[in-house]
Fold:
Amino acid sequence: FESKEHLLTAALELAAGRDTARLLEHAADAMRDDVDPVEATIDAITEPADSGSQSSRGSLIATFALLLEAARRPALREISRRWTEVYLLTLSRLLEAAGSRRPREDAELLLGAADGLMIEQLAIGVEDDLRPRLRRLATALLSQQT
Structure:
């Protein structure tokens, strides 16, 4: 690589591409297999943290480090924005299938909560299943539809 900027750009593009492919495949499988859309949404968000292995933990730390670099480096922001947009569009579709009347807003809240919880777990060294808390949040969001 010609520079650190090029290395970080390539790393973020690779991470985004792999995760986006995983997310889209998961969503397609969920729709095709008639899976509960709330569970499919939660699984889509938590799958990267699920294995509990050291490599999974390392991948999550690397991912969040790259996203923080995007906050400092304008050249990385577009990749981060596109990656987030794929998540929001995909989760919005799943939440709409679950009955959300504000699927985009609900997707933003669920994704933001999940990211915050994952960062907290990584920072304090706790491995806990995020699904119950995200399910509670998703249920609350869907019950508040007016």
User: Anything to note?
Assistant: The mean pLDDT is 90. The CA atoms of residues 16 and 84 lie 9 Å apart. The chain has six helices and no strands. The first helix runs from residue 4 to 32.
